[in-house]
Amino acid sequence: MPDEDTRYLAHLCGLADNPNLPDHLLDKLVAMTSGELDAGEDLFGAPRTAHVPEAADIPALETTGEVMARRTDLPVAAYHQMATDRRLWVRLYLARNPALPESLLWTLADDRAVRPELAWNPNVPLRLLAEIAVTAAIPPVLLPRVASAAPAELRWLATSEHWQVRALAAPHPDLPTHLTDKLIDDQEISVVQALVAAKNPRCSTELLHELAQRSPAVCPHIAQHPNASAETLMLCLRVLPARRHAAKHPNLPAGTITDLLDDPDLLVAEAAAANPALPRKVMERVLLESC
User: Fold this and answer.
1) Is residue 279 assigned to a domain?
2) Which of helix, strand or coil describes residue 5?
3) Rounded-to-integer distance, Cα 267 and Cα 221, Å
4) CA distance linking residue 227 with residue 200, whole number of Å
5) Nearest 10 degrees: Cα torsion 278, 281, 286, 290
6) How many whole angstroms separate alpha carbon 132 and alpha carbon 143?
7) Quick one: CA dihedral 120, 125, 129, 132, positive or negative?
8) Is 254 within the bounds of a domain?
9) Structural domain contains residue 80
10) How many domains would you assign to the chain?
11) 86: how many CB neighbours lie within 10 A of its CB?
12) Residues 6 or more apart whose Cβ sits within 8 Å of residue 4
């Protein structure tokens, strides 16, 4: 049974998500969320309490600050106030909010801790995204703003002088062929890695094999690409982070898949059992052994 403190936190979170909360109470809640007020009698009429529940007693509820930072229907002034919150996690949630005005996105970019999180905002200006890519490590995935990029914007990204910006364009599924071919020949391995990670069909079997030989760090992505050959997958099995991906690839020889059922790494063994190329007789044997 939740205690009154926990129930009060749940009520605050509910109010934070309530679109009909009156403006004067919204202002107070935003102020409290920003750490400017203590929760007390003057806020919503709830009594003050000196008891702080143990962490184990608190259920996994969203915090008030988290709810407020994700809302997309607040006045602009509320977002500006939350942008100055002392608590990093509130600013991090806020950075992804698509309702933020462009000016505030640029302001948040000055916050070094929050800056990388802005890359996931679907409305981040492309120029700001490019600046973030050069200064922060971004995984080789399709970001929301890149996914909605117009053809001219994709061309701008793919032809940038900075490889980090070119890598942003690589995962786009509708990247024009001439731009894909340009990125395949890129001198920076991380750009090619982004194409491989996106399973771009223009990454040939020969290219994947060459990459596996030249850069083992790319093997976890190569082992998931449909064009990876059996020979390339055998190379990937030598790279620890790539083994479970290679074990599940249907181009891996059936005998190797069967051998991997006994791999000491259970994730690799599980992946081998899930491989569609595992011989049916072996499947039957595995089932009989488990009975």
Assistant:
1) no
2) helix
3) 17
4) 9
5) 150
6) 12
7) negative
8) no
9) yes
10) 1
11) 9
12) 49
User: What distance lies between CA 233 and its chain's CA centroid?
Assistant: 26
**Assign residue 60 a region: left if phi > 0, alpha if psi is -120 to 50, beta otherwise?**
beta
Structural tokens at position 179: 């731009």
Nearest Cα neighbor of 9 from 79, 67, 81 is: 67
- Rounded distance between C-alpha atoms, residue 205 and residue 235, angstroms: 13
CB atoms within 10 A of CB 91: 20
Residue whose entry in the numeric block shows the structure tokens 């992804």? 96
Identify whether 83 is part of a domain: yes
- Residue 104: give the domain boundaries: 1-112
Cα separations in angstroms, 13 against 69, 88, 94, 96, 249: 11, 18, 16, 19, 45
Structure tokens at 112: 């070094």
Counting Cβ atoms within 10 Å, is residue 57 exposed (0-12), middle (13-18) or buried (19+)? exposed
Kindly write down the DSSP assignment for every residue of 254-290, as one continuous string.
Answer: HHHHHHHTT-SSHHHHHHHHT-TTS-HHHHHHHHHHH
Give just the sign of the alpha carbon dihedral 238, 239, 240, 241.
negative
Residue position matching structure tokens 């009698």: 41
- pLDDT averaged per 10 residues in sequence order, the chain, 291 residues: 64 76 80 55 40 40 78 93 90 96 97 96 98 94 97 97 98 95 95 96 97 96 98 98 96 96 93 93 83 57
